[in-house]
Design brief:
324 residues, mainly alpha, Rossmann fold, Tyrosyl-Transfer RNA Synthetase, 12 helices, 5 strands, binds adenosine-5'-tetraphosphate, aminoacyl-trna synthetase
């Protein structure tokens, strides 16, 4: 057992990749001690729209519940509902972290490259991420390759803090999640489907209407080879469609193309599968979003459960560093 922590950032509306590659798996494999975080504080490290940020957080929370995360068993909450706790520990950890460590993060280098105005939060968000992890005593953090370095930082900060001031934090470990599908952009199949791509036909959002989903999939980029074959390097577009179809139906993408003859059939088969996969999720999500009282009740429940976990550890940390 132990505590696993997983999060979804609200830098945009949740998409098919987030659902197939992460949320669906989290819901399917949840244990009572799991912590799920809607990371809205992380949704403002670059230019953002306040109204949308709030909306994306509500949507992401609704998505977790609609996907089957059980708010009575797991701790599922919106990060900004505990903004004081996360903010306070972030400051303490920023004073545990060096500037050199923060500026070496590959994600920072990549995301700040070529930008003339970089928010300081883009530099320090890995420390906020460390606070997210350490507040809840998470010992395992399932992350992909791109986030591994941040979990290593959280680990280093926990060790350094414990060594300097006393054993307050559980030292977390990054674990490779069970391989989920890595979904690519439908229009540019060599890059991953991403929230930050914005409104493009290449990104299918969980809340898109069935009509829109269908149109986006039917416009998916393929190639001129005219063979339905799983070969991500040579045929990224076709392989992505097979990957999506495989993930929707639980069959390996290598096997699933056998009965499909042309690209037209492939696109329409995938369109049907995605529409049917998302339909119940979107319906439950919409129900929740249309019932703000119920959504707020679940949100308050999650925040309460999260605070019960976070407060003792935060207080212990403040005490040993000499605050309060
Ligand atoms: N394209 C994807 N295919 C499969 N899984 C994906 N995830 C993200 N994109 C894909 C997984 O979704 C979970 C939540 O992701 P996140 O909110 O932490 O954001 P991210 O990984 O940075 O990806 P996004 O959604 O594309 O956002 P932006 O554009 O802001 O970077 C994670 O488990 C992630 O692996």
């Amino acid at each position: 057992s132990g505590t696993r922590l997983s999060g979804i950032k609200t830098s945009g509306p949740a998409h098919l990749g987030n659902y197939l590659g992460a949320v669906r798996r989290w819901a399917g494999d949840q244990r009572p001690d799991d912590v799920f975080l809607v990371a809205d504080l992380h949704g403002m490290t670059s230019t953002h729209n306040p109204h949308r940020l709030r909306q994306y957080a509500r949507q992401a929370f609704a998505l977790l519940i609609a996907s089957g995360v059980d708010p009575e068993r797991a701790v599922v909450f919106v990060q900004s509902d505990l903004v004081r706790e996360h903010g306070a520990l972030t400051w303490v950890l920023e004073c545990t972290c060096t500037y050199g460590e923060a500026k070496r993060m590959i994600q920072f280098k990549e995301k700040s490259r070529g930008q003339d105005s970089v928010r300081l939060g883009l530099l320090t968000y890995p420390v906020l991420q460390a606070a997210d992890i350490l507040l809840y005593g998470a010992d395992r953090v399932p992350v992909g390759e791109d986030q591994r370095e941040h979990v290593e930082l959280a680990r280093a900060l926990a060790n350094r803090f414990n060594g300097a001031y006393g054993e307050v934090f559980v030292v977390p470990e990054g674990v490779l999640p069970k391989v989920g599908a890595r979904i690519k952009d439908l229009s540019e199949p060599t890059r991953t489907m991403a929230k930050s791509s914005g409104e493009t036909p290449g990104v299918v959002f969980v809340l898109d209407s069935p009509d829109l989903v269908r149109r986006k999939v039917l416009r998916a980029v393929t190639d001129e080879l005219d063979t339905v074959r799983y070969a991500p390097k040579e045929q990224p577009g076709v392989s992505n469609l097979l990957e999506i179809l495989g993930a929707c139906t639980g069959v390996s993408p290598r096997e699933i193309g056998a009965d499909i003859t042309g690209y037209e059939q492939l696109r329409s088969t995938v369109a049907d599968a995605v529409v049917e996969l998302l339909r119940p999720v979107r319906e439950r999500m919409t129900e929740l979003l249309d019932d703000p009282a119920e959504l707020d009740r679940l949100r308050a429940l999650g925040a309460h459960r999260a605070r019960e976990r976070a407060t003792p550890r935060l207080e212990a940390a403040l005490k040993v560093v000499g605050l309060g």
